[in-house]
Amino acid sequence: MSIDTPVHDPSNHEQLLIIDFGSQVTQLIARRVRESGVFCEVHPYNRVDAAMLNAFSPKAIILSGGPSSVVDAGSPRADAAVFSLGVPILGICYGQQTMMAQLGGAVEKGDSGEFGRAFIQADAKTPLFKDMFGDDHDGREEVWMSHGDHVAKMAPGFDVLATSPGAPYAVIGDTTRHFYGTQFHPEVVHTPRGAQMLRNFTHGIAGFKGDWSMAAFKDEAIAAVRAQVGDGKVICGLSGGVDSSVVAVLLHEAIGDQLTCVYVDTGMMRKGESDHVVSLFKEHYDMNLIHVDAGDEFLDLLDGVSDPERKRKIIGGTFIDIFEREAKKVGGAKFLAQGTLYPDVIESVSFDGGPSVTIKSHHNVGGLPERMDMALVEPLRELFKDEVRALGRELGLHADFVERHPFPGPGLAIRCPGEITRERLAVLREADAIYLDQIRKHGLYNKIWQAFAVILPVQTVGVMGDERTYENVLALRAVTSTDGMTADYYPYSHEFLGETATRIINEVRGVNRVVYDVTSKPPGTIEWE
Ligand SMILES: Nc1ncnc2c1ncn2[C@@H]1O[C@H](COP(=O)(O)OP(=O)(O)OP(=O)(O)O)[C@@H](O)[C@H]1O
Ligand SMILES: O=c1[nH]c(=O)c2[nH+]cn([C@@H]3O[C@H](COP(=O)(O)O)[C@@H](O)[C@H]3O)c2[nH]1
Ligand SMILES: NC(=O)CC[C@H](N)C(=O)O
Ligand SMILES: [Mg+2]
């Protein structure tokens, strides 16, 4: 089964195609469309031609925004077949601009652009704006803009549906062909009624029924797994994180005993993690689960290593060694199950516009499959994280796992900048447990996307009980995010921070100072290494 073979059964679903011109927020279009119950996929503009359109058979198309300027020679264009397919099209920002340039209109560079909040003045009677304006509403709508260029002349057949001070053609439409263009971004939350507008396009104009649900997906994914693996054996790395837990439960339902889950204790897990994960799974599921205690193996290999990338490479390699060993032990597993999600797939089919730099080597991405002689089973590769959580609920996965904050495979290793020692890990583990306990006690766990402590390779002077101390600094991190790609620090109250710092310093030997990280991503990353 190739990676392009869908996990779900496409004949059961109406599909929408998103053509990507490289916008930073293309994935948000897909999320909004999926949230309204419509299956969609994102494909780079240069991979969409008549043959692809014929195979995918979209019921509607959305053209994303992008960093290029339509006015520049050689800038991206949609394949002409897109406009002759006869399905509704919505062009967003660059998508609107290229549609105009391709269909006989014109685009020009302005003296100034519009970046951020703007207001459009719209014709509220247009179907695209259904339910967007209240009764007393005068057609004024808050939107989020991010453009330097603008449409200067509409293509034949189009009418103006909304204007803004910087974009005379803020929204345009050809109601005969059902082609629409917006200069603003309906997919971002800063356009408060943008999701409604996208829904008006998909359900109202394109006639989607909204048949995409995790209940239906579950059965289709189970059937696809059975078809792929036949009577072969499958190994699944089970971390207790949302993704691998959902994969494990789904596979267990699909193939029962052919599945063996491998939980690896790297020696860099959180306090109580191994017991919690292994006992919960053993209690609720009658599945083959191997608990590999590999703490010494990992820690010996990491001895004296402080470079973050070397740490990650060593950890990734050791995971592979362990999975390979375990695969042999169960009598030669031919398949390795992974919790690859749709954002990973989109990113790996990287957009043409310039190579992106490696910020960090994630231990499971890339490295694993190449060296391993096993076929991959990736039942979540069409889903976003929120859909994975919904699928987990559908599968009856314990709430403890469904709502969990993500925890990286390298674990505490990347929260221990500098050399990793057993002593430092012990201090970090205790402090982290108190921090998470505080978060739960204050009812904040589900408001935060991810939270953890970091032990810094810095000692500072303190005074405790009239004694001089010279001990470790601990940093606390907590972020809000939707997908981990961008994030903001969580705005705790001073009371919470003070109480938590006091508890950590009083209850953990080896910490005499606590600081809070207020860096967003970008420019920071979520983890410190
Ligand atoms: N301690 C571990 N033991 C076994 N497999 C692991 C371990 N840590 C990570 N993995 C494997 O690596 C994959 C990637 O880890 P990742 O942290 O991205 O996903 P996750 O742990 O399933 O979910 P989450 O992102 O919510 O933490 C996991 O799906 C799992 O297969
Ligand atoms: O499985 C994983 N293996 C890794 O090597 C890894 N590195 C970072 N992360 C997690 O990814 C999200 C984004 O993290 P960064 O902003 O630090 O890159 C955050 O949720 C991080 O915890 C990892 N997950
Ligand atoms: N966000 C976008 O799609 C921007 C389109 C184009 N680069 C402009 O500045 O107008
Ligand atoms: Mg994890």
Describe the protein.
- The protein has helices at residues 26-35, 50-56, 81-84, 94-103, 194-205, 214-229, 242-255, 273-284, 295-301, 308-329, 342-348, 367-371, 385-394, 399-402, 422-441, 494-507; strands at residues 15-20, 39-44, 60-63, 89-92, 106-122, 140-153, 159-164, 167-174, 179-182, 234-237, 259-265, 288-293, 335-337, 375-377, 450-464, 467-480, 488-489, 511-516.
- The protein is of the alpha/beta class.
- The protein folds into three domains: 14-205, Class I glutamine amidotransferase (GATase) domain (Rossmann fold); 214-402, HUPs (Rossmann fold, 3-Layer(aba) Sandwich), CATH 3.40.50; 421-516, GMP Synthetase, Chain A, domain 3, CATH 3.30.300.10.
- The strands form three sheets. It has a nine-stranded mixed sheet with strand order 2-1-3-4-9-8-7-5-6, sandwiched between helices. Strands 12-11-10-13-14 form a five-stranded parallel sheet, sandwiched between helices. Strands 15, 16, 17 and 18 form a four-stranded mixed sheet that branches.
- Helix 6 crosses helix 7, helix 6 packs across helix 13 (385-394) and helix 15 runs antiparallel to helix 16.
- The chain is globular.
- The chain starts with 14 loop residues before the first strand and ends in a 13-residue tail after the last strand.
- The structure holds adenosine-5'-triphosphate, xanthosine-5'-monophosphate, glutamine and magnesium ion.
- Residues 312, 360, 362-364, 406, 408-410, 450, 484, 521, 525-527 line the site of xanthosine-5'-monophosphate (XMP).
